[in-house]
């Protein structure tokens, strides 16, 4: 999978060089390229923002650098990329979104800062690829970078081969609409706290039904909204 990221803080994405995704990049499973939006400016101050038409607080990202960056990265490429703009005003990012996007051969992430990107950029981008505005949740971050880091991690680990043992992907929270069951390891007693005896019983059927019950109980307690669906 090819992933391009456009940001005015490209070094934030240095963290993608470590751990599982770092290995996937080294092995060529993920081809991640991070671009500095300011490289697509032409003035001495490398300006990327300006005041909003109609007035109001804050600054808006100018369309011209975005147009040049998108032309360079997403223009005329085959197949057309999915172009994701992280935004608290976007559709909600879920495990289903991560699965869907993990099927795309080419993702482009455009990270906005300030009060947002000039709205015309989204329309222009839709001429180059499939545009998605995506939010991590109902809270506000200062910019899209941290949200895109989270999305790349959630998507990248679903690309075949990135996670060594594919079985560890199926038993996770959210994969079956329920939260994950609790896990324990040795010792069997730790600071007077015992591991649930069923897990030591060797009875695989009993273990499986206990885990299922735990999943349902936890989901009811912590995330009743998930059971409603
Ligand atoms: Cl995707 N971007 C920003 N700036 N804030 C957010 C978000 C995204 N998701 C939740 N809050």
UniProtKB/TrEMBL annotation:
InterPro entries: Alpha/beta_knot_MTases (IPR029028), tRNA_m1G_MeTrfase_C_sf (IPR023148), tRNA_m1G_MeTrfase_TrmD (IPR002649), tRNA_m1G_MTases_N (IPR029026), tRNA_MeTrfase_TRMD/TRM10 (IPR016009). Residues 1-228 form the tRNA methyltransferase TRMD/TRM10-type domain. Its EC number is 2.1.1.228. It is found in: Cytoplasm. Homodimer. GO terms for molecular function: tRNA (guanine(37)-N1)-methyltransferase activity. It comes from the Bacteria. GO terms for biological process: methylation. PANTHER family: TRNA (GUANINE-N(1)-)-METHYLTRANSFERASE. Specifically methylates guanosine-37 in various tRNAs. It catalyses: guanosine(37) in tRNA + S-adenosyl-L-methionine = N(1)-methylguanosine(37) in tRNA + S-adenosyl-L-homocysteine + H(+). This is tRNA (guanine-N(1)-)-methyltransferase. CDD domains: TrmD-like (cd18080). Keywords: Cytoplasm, Methyltransferase, S-adenosyl-L-methionine, Transferase, tRNA processing. NCBIfam families: PRK00026.1, trmD. Pfam families: tRNA_m1G_MT (PF01746). It is an enzyme of class 2 (transferase). S-adenosyl-L-methionine binds at residues 112, 136-141. Belongs to the RNA methyltransferase TrmD family. Its main location: cytoplasm.
């Amino acid at each position: 999978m090819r992933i391009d990221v456009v940001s005015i803080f490209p070094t934030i994405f240095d963290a993608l060089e470590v751990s599982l995704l770092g290995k996937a990049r080294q092995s060529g499973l993920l081809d991640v390229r991070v671009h500095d939006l300011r490289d697509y400016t032409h003035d001495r101050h490398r300006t990327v923002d300006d005041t909003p038409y109609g007035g109001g607080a804050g600054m808006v990202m100018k369309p011209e650098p975005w147009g040049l960056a998108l032309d360079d990265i997403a223009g005329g490429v085959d197949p057309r990329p999915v172009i994701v703009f992280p935004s608290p005003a976007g559709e909600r990012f879920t495990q289903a979104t991560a699965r869907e996007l993990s099927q795309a051969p080419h993702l482009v992430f455009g990270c906005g800062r300030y009060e947002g990107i000039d709205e015309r950029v989204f329309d222009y981008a839709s001429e180059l690829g499939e545009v998605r505005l995506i939010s991590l949740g109902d809270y506000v971050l200062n910019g899209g970078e941290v949200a895109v880091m989270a999305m790349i991690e959630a998507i990248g680990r679903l690309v075949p081969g990135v996670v060594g043992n594919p079985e560890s992907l199926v038993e996770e929270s959210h994969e079956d609409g329920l939260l994950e069951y609790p896990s324990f390891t040795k010792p069997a007693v730790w600071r007077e706290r015992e591991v649930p005896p069923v897990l030591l019983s060797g009875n695989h059927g009993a273990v499986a039904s206990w885990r299922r019950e735990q999943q349902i109980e936890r989901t009811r307690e912590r995330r009743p909204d998930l059971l409603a669906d």
